[in-house]
Amino acid sequence: MALEVGGSSPLGHPRRTGRPARGGPFRARAEGPGRPVRHGRADSVGWVSDPRPAPSAGPDAADLEAVRSANLAFYSSFEAGDVDAMSNLWEHSERASCVHPGWPVLRGWPAIARSWSAILSGPDRLQVILTDERVVVVGDVGWVTVDENLLGQRQATVTAVNVFTRATDGWRMVAHHGSAVVARA
Predict the structure, then answer these.
(1) Residues 98 and 46 placed together within one structural domain of the fold
(2) Do 167 and 91 form a contact (C-beta atoms < 8 A)?
């Protein structure tokens, strides 16, 4: 899990610090190569620094890179309009879910496949520029949070969470959730 210590919340509220009122130790995972592992304790008012030394076990750099690569393959198939490549990335199960901006949740691979087929067969081709990418791996689950900057006839920014699970032949997407970012006045 990713952990930010101090600073302000996404809404601009200052983060509280101090001794935790309750809760046990919490160990955050590195978010990517070269990023520090941070530690803290959960409590009812926020996160605080933990003075204990960092444990040596963390996500394997190869796993972080593999999840990042699977995520990039997802966006490459999207840009290319390649339904087969998109299909190869997804876990074909009933536990898979997908939320496109403005759509209700789609559950199960058949519904997800139909949505991507409709989207990718459309006349609009979009270029996707990814920003603010964060990759996290915990065990056999990895997720990426990212801003999708869509360029084409229409331009928009979508913030997304992509969840991957480890399969015998690599990482498979099990969930995609995209939400349109509304420009502030």
Answers:
(1) no
(2) yes
Q: Which residues contact 130 (CB under 8 A, 6 or more apart)?
A: 72, 75, 146, 147, 148, 149
Token pair of 93 as six digits: 């199960």
The answer to whether residue 4 sits within a structural domain is no
Q: Judge whether 181 and 157 are in contact, CB under 8 Å.
A: yes
Q: Are 3 and 26 in contact (CB under 8 A)?
A: yes
Give the pLDDT confidence score for residue 98 in this predicted structure: 98
Q: With contact defined as beta carbons under 8 Å apart, do 107 and 119 qualify? A: no
| 81 closest CA partner among 119, 50, 113, 110 | 119
Whether 7 is in a domain gets the answer: no
Asked whether residue 6 is domain-assigned, the answer is no
pLDDT in tens, 121-163: 888 788 999 999 999 999 999 999 999 999 988 789 999 999 9
For residues 142 and 74, state if they share a domain.
Answer: yes
What are the tens digits of pLDDT across the range 2-24? 433 334 444 444 444 443 334 43
Count of domains observed in the chain: 2
Domain span holding position 78: 61-180
For residues 119 and 103, the answer to whether their CB atoms sit within 8 Å is no
